[in-house]
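User: Sequence in, structure out. Go.
Assistant: Echoing your sequence, followed by the structure tokens.
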Amino acid sequence: MLAALPEETLKRLERIAEQRQYRRRQVVHFADQPGDYVYLLCTGRVKIARVSDQGRELTLYLLEDGALFGETGLLAASEPYDLMAETLEDSLICAFRRSDILAVVQESLPAMDALLRLISERRLQAENQVADLVFLEVPKRLAKLLLRLHDAPSGRTGRNGQMLRVKLTHQELANIIGSTRETTTLVLNDFKRQGLIEFLGRKIVILSRIGLGKLLTGDFAP
């Protein structure tokens, strides 16, 4: 969306942006909080999640450098955020007032089109997440997540496999795939036993992307 704006408009936004430093595990905004700001993730990583009244959490998607979030606040003047945003690592985030973003987007038809596509893509991601919860068993959901993290450009290739850049606890992995920490740990240990992954401290190294892909399609034989 920002890339569709004229250079002069981008410079104007740069002047009014509020740069904020967030520590790891710090909430950027809560659900139901007034959607007064739209955020640009400059560096770091952020998770977008829904939290139930009982405190159970479901992570809908992970965001990396260059991602815009908090866009639900643009839908209506009094629209609150419908999800929680929390950093997964130390992050630099630019905050723009809702009114400022709306003003510049309304000046550019391509930017407005990009905003609508962004909102549509986020909704589709959430719908796909729900579909996985309904139709895929936990091992397949976890394999699909590990494949997505493996294929992210931020992964680091080592001598024995590709290390996932992001450090996610077993509870955080469980929150993403809609499982319990205990079940997620059991499945991870099973993946390790089958030679698909290994652990290096708190990080996961993917040893066999092909094996994880076959497990996801049901073709993998331990």
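User: And one key feature?
Assistant: The two ends are 45 Å apart (CA to CA).
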